[in-house]
Amino acid sequence: TIHARSVFLQGLLTMNSDTRPRTFGSGLEALMESLERFVLEFKRESIIDVCLAYVKAQDWFQGIVLGMETEWQLDENLRLFAKACLSEDQCVEIESKLIGATEDLLCPSRWSRP
């Protein structure tokens, strides 16, 4: 059984630009800009919507683990989770355009902790 976790990169992808840590430099900003373009191009509501729709489209995951801190976040995640997943073509486009993201950014276990 395979479960997806850290769908929102430990919350980094849910933060606005004022609250995101600067330790990731331009890599995180480039990732966020790409995700914002996907929101518009795929007519999704938000980056959270794109992330959930992408992960749901991966048929090799049997489950998705999401962290949340409030009841509103739970309700919002459930609402977005009920929406359609991305198409295979949309997933391929995401994968081809995000290929430059570094493992240091995408793997929370590699992040330096204060």
Supply the number of helical segments: 5
Oligomer designation: single chain
Strand content: under 5%
Largest sheet: 2 strands, parallel
Fraction of helical residues: 40-55%
Rg is: 14 Å
Low-confidence stretches: none
Number of strands: 2
Net shape: globular
- Derived structural class: mainly alpha
**Largest beta sheet: strand ordering:** 1-2
**How much is the average pLDDT?**
89
Topology order in helix (H) and strand (E) letters = EHHEHHH
N- to C-terminal separation? 33 Å
Keywords:
114 residues, mainly alpha, two-stranded parallel sheet
Give a description of the structure.
With 114 residues, the chain is mainly alpha-helical. It has helices at 25-41, 47-57, 71-81, 88-97, 103-106, and strands at residues 3-4, 63-64. The protein has a two-stranded parallel ribbon with strand order 1-2. It is globular and about 35 Å long.
Give the helices and strands, then pairings.
Blueprint: E1 3-4, H1 25-41, H2 47-57, E2 63-64, H3 71-81, H4 88-97, H5 103-106
Describe, in short, the structure shown.
With 114 residues, the protein is mainly alpha-helical. The chain has helices at residues 25-41, 47-57, 71-81, 88-97, 103-106, and strands at 3-4, 63-64.
